[in-house]
Amino acid sequence: MTKILDRTDQWARLSSFRWLMGLYAENHVKLEKLFAPAQRAPGTYFSQGSDGLIVRADVLEQHRFTTELRLTYTVEDPETGTLDPSAFIRAYRDAHQAEATHCRAGRNWQDAIGMFPPPEKMIDHRLRMNIFLGKWLDYLASQGHAADSFDASPLHEASVA
Q1: pLDDT, position 125
Q2: CA dist 153 to 31, 44, 54, Å?
Q3: pLDDT for res 1
Q4: Distance between CA atoms of 147 and 134, rounded to whole angstroms?
């Protein structure tokens, strides 16, 4: 009986990992349609949606096969003064995957799951972050944000201040 339960646990972990990899692939497609990060130079870009909120996308680094960026609104958290919510994303051009490496929605990942979490807890946390990212990208697209709506113009920056 123990062997059957061990095998079931093993399949559950494997399917969670497969689901996570699927989310990364879906998020890559959504991110490419929304922002096309591979075509952007490092810098800050803005887009205003039909909800009136301004989305800020910071291309932090462009590497040979990856782009690192942060997506956020231009809304400051009243307690910390940081832009919140925000998602830090690593897009892998060669693998066609995009992962939320960490999200700032009130807490850091260490506060949420501890410094040395077991692998299952880390996969679960990554699943939750990337489900959030996928839903947020869907919402942004529904509000009219698209690759051609993001602009680096100072006009947007003036409306942020």
Answers
A1: 84
A2: 21, 9, 13
A3: 47
A4: 16
